[in-house]
Amino acid sequence: MNPLAKVKHTWVKLKFKRNDLRIIEHIPAATFSQILQQYCAQGWELTDAYRPFDEAQRWQGKLRKGTSVLTCIWQPEQAGHIYGLSRIINGMAAQFSLVAKPAPTY
Questions:
Q1: Taking a C-beta distance cutoff of 8 angstroms, is the pair 95, 87 a contact?
Q2: Which top-rank group of organisms is this from (predicted)?
Q3: Which of 9, 19, 83, 84 has the fewest CB atoms within 10 Å, counting from its CB?
């Protein structure tokens, strides 16, 4: 990793810590789709998505409920990533048997 990338990664880790954020990485397509459907059924609104989720294409959207926001990113080569407040992400990880990390690994 080059020095600039190390600085950027350290900056992102500090941002996640300061804002009490967590991330779930490498979510399989079926689980990612299930999370989107289940959270929408629970009253979360899917915003900033310009088309429906399709596992063959890059996709990005946000799940919003009140003041809570979860950022959802799908990249076919890296699978899905969802990040947001730690209390929500930790619950999601437990519910879907996933691992919540304190910062992105990339």
A1: no
A2: Bacteria
A3: 19
